[in-house]
Amino acid sequence: MAIDGISARVGALPQRVSDDPALLRRGRFLDASCLLVVGEREFRLRIADGRVVEAREGPFVTPSTDFAVIGPEAAWGRLLAAEPVPGDHDILAFVKRREIRLAGDLHPFMSRLLYWKALLGCLR
Amino acid sequence: MIEPIAGQYLHLDYEGRHYRVYFESAGSGIPLVCLHTAGADGRQYRGLMNAAAITGTFRVIAFDLPWHGKSSPPEGWHNEEYRLTADSYTGITMAVIAALGLDRPVVMGCSIGGRVVLHLAVRHPAAFRALIGLESASHTAPYYDLDWLHRADVHGGEVAAGAVSGLMAPQSPEAERWETLWHYMQSGPGVFKGDLYFYGIDGDIRARLGEIDTARTPLYLLTGEYDYSATPEDTLAVAKAVPGAKVTIMRRLGHFPTSENPDLFLSYIEPVLAEIAAKG
User: For B9-21, how does the pLDDT look when each residue is reduced to its tens digit (9 = 90+)?
Assistant: First the structure.
């Protein structure tokens, strides 16, 4: 399944997060960077005190981020569907099935799981 | 309004250690012992205990495992790492049942509780009127590093809630989903991780499923379609290995059916309990 408008969705992320006070509160004190690898496309996110201060599309040469979330476009498409089917509704389900992979220093991710899940939910 | 749920503390000795165990009960009739999920406590059964249609026939009892909820860890806990095992889980469950003087209760457990009822069926086939496994799988390999659940630089309650948040159905009421997560956020340090030792490692019961005799111990299995931890396929595999087990896949529910959407869960469990009650 291809993802319609993934660039626009990622581009809208800074505003979506800024418009969500509960998400900002959950992300307070968080400074991190991550690379979303959606098939052949890459997006770099930089978070400062819970705000998305950069949401930039690649390609990148030697991108350096704290961690990366890597999966084929089809898997991302199922995860980010408006109404995911059972089993496709949470990123850890894809991690369990080895369809999406987490790599790098996962401390910023695991210590803020609820934040990151909500942030990814903003891409739906 | 005051809910018809009473809470008490039970003192018991088990394998040389003293335990103060909290339990709640409601109703009268056939004893129905309810086992909570890993890293949580008996509050998950609040919906069941407030359901007059059930408490008119069943005495619903939910105890907090030692280390959980309002049950204390045993003396000396601060010098050890908590780990739930198949032996300790079945042992403490039988000890509580004996201490409360329950005669052939129905035992219903969810997740780790859904696993331990399979162990109970193997080890104590004559002790129960029926067993009910919710989100029941014979084994579940860990799908993230469990060390994240207990380390000083990660908030244990927050990470536990984050780890299980997606196991619920998106359609479940928001208030009930966050109530469920609140319980996880309140768990003691290392307790969720210690429970998952049973869930992911020690409690693997694949090799013994064939020993379960549903003619002696009726077995009911109910699993939510959104559960990607103990999946519907996992439960169906258990049923395939245990002739006579009755399976229901619950639509629009996840890993915490009793707690994430109590009203919807009641619509699934009431016919099961009615069937058990009819058998006497």
Answer: 999 999 999 999 9
CA–CA dist B106, B125 (Å, integer): 12
DSSP B182-246: HHHHTSPTTHHHHHHHIIIIIT--GGGGGG--TTTS-EEEEEETT-SSS-HHHHHHHHHHSTT-E
Angstroms from A62 CA to nearest CA on chain B: 27
Q: What is the dihedral of CA B181, B183, B112, B226, to 10 degrees?
A: -20
Cβ atoms of A105 and A64 closer than 8 Å: no
Residues with Cβ < 8 Å from A112, sequence gap 6 or more?
A: A26, A27, A30, A32, B158, B162
Mark which residues 219-238 of B lie under 8 Å from A by CB: 225-226, 228-229, 231
B144 touches chain A (CB under 8 A): yes
What is the pTM (predicted TM-score) of this model?
A: 0.97
Cβ separation of B143 and A96 shorter than 8 Å? yes
Q: What is the ipTM of this complex?
A: 0.95
User: Do the Cβ atoms of A90 and B154 come within 8 Å?
Assistant: no
